[in-house]
Design a protein that fits this description.
The protein is about 80% helix and about 0% strand. It has a domain of about 210 residues. The relative contact order is 0.15. Helix 1 runs parallel beside helix 12.
Length: about 375
């Protein structure tokens, strides 16, 4: 009972924080639209026309590629068909973008939707965790290359230059650390928790957390040891995801500017978009933040701030389209976003309970 009260209080705090972030994002969005010029932005949007259908298609293909990568991360005897994975991915992404601080509900929602098709929640959530590892490594490498290319090819303002240095250093360290940990199967998270617990700092709470972390590490390294043949295909899926993002940026800027941009420019726009998407996932639709980052980059690349803000708005529009598709899938199943997030939490709690009972060993 006490844990439920704590979880309810935590949910309320997260909800208030999420609402505050959403309001701040909307204020930033309005400011940058006003600063770039609403008339010029509308003129840019009108140039896109039916090209928006191609932008939507490219975005849908990106969802499909990551859904395909997810299906490759299941282990026998569990499997998930591509279409079920694709639909679950759309529903989870819709929940993650609509709900403030949706990062805490999007992945469990995907797992809950997949588990409705007979696959255990623990298996679906484990596969999501594995796919996310591949995704985060690919993002780190992608933004490392983008920041390095930006530094090498353009004279940058001081703030953007130092930010790029930070991204290069941070992403490079992340990739190197992850590669080392994976190769050595280094269980550094559980080691850190044991070290902390050994000094008497919240020993009981850390012991419960240690079980979950150790189980997570075992799933990751176990998959690595048993399924190395799948790695090239999964890595290829993540690479195609990023390539489609570059193609989407290329097409959008081409339609807005009326002239073909360089592939490097499209690559840099998508690289900045990845940074914004990962770092500011807690802000619904990255409102305001995307306009800020993309607008300043467009000015550096000589497209003008209005073109960058327009690109950010077009991204939101195609995201809203696929969010609507996800919500439609929910409605067709007689569900709501709130209902499915609650179902995800119940399924996750049940999976934790089953794992705890399975691991329980009577004391002698």
């Amino acid at each position: 009972m006490g844990e439920k009260v704590k979880e309810g209080g935590a949910s309320k705090r997260l909800g208030r924080a999420g609402a505050a972030f959403a309001l701040a994002g909307l204020a930033l969005f309005a400011y940058f639209v006003w600063r770039a010029g609403p008339g010029e932005i509308w003129s840019n949007i009108s140039k896109i026309g039916w090209g928006f259908a191609a932008i939507i298609l490219l975005a849908g293909l990106r969802f499909a590629v990551r859904a395909g990568a997810w299906t490759l991360c299941f282990e026998e005897p569990h499997r998930l068909g591509f279409w079920e994975a694709f639909k679950a991915y759309l529903i989870g992404d819709a929940a993650g973008n609509v709900v403030p601080l949706g990062i805490v509900v999007s992945e469990p929602t995907k797992a809950a939707m997949a588990s409705r098709r007979g696959v255990p929640f623990a298996a679906t959530f484990s596969a999501i965790a594995v796919e996310n590892i591949f995704y985060m490594l690919s993002v780190a490498f992608f933004v490392f290359c983008g920041a390095a290319a930006l530094l090498a090819a353009f004279p940058l303002p001081k703030v953007l230059r130092y930010s790029s240095y930070g991204i290069v250093a941070g992403a490079g360290l992340f990739v190197a650390f992850a590669a080392y940990a994976l190769r050595r199967e280094w269980r550094f998270l559980s080691a850190a928790l044991r070290w902390t617990a050994g000094r008497g700092l919240g020993r009981r709470a850390l012991a419960r957390r240690l079980e979950r972390v150790a189980a997570f590490e075992e799933r990751i390294y176990g998959f690595y040891g048993r399924n190395r043949r799948r790695f090239p295909v999964i890595v290829m899926c993540e690479a195609v995801f990023h390539a489609l993002g570059v193609a989407e940026s290329y097409l959008t800027i081409w339609l807005i500017a009326g002239a073909r941009p360089s592939v490097l420019s499209a690559f840099l726009f998508e690289s900045v978009n990845r940074v914004i998407t990962v770092v500011f996932k807690f802000i619904p639709l990255r409102a305001g933040i995307d306009e800020l980052g993309t607008g300043h980059l467009a000015r550096v690349l000589a497209f003008g701030m209005a073109a960058g803000v327009t690109l950010a708005i077009v991204r939101k529009a195609r995201l809203v389209f696929w969010m609507a598709a996800g919500v439609s899938l929910l409605v067709a199943r007689g569900l709501s976003l709130r209902g499915v997030t609650e179902e995800a939490e119940r399924a996750r709690a049940a999976a934790r309970g089953e794992k705890a009972r399975a691991d329980a060993v009577p004391e002698s």
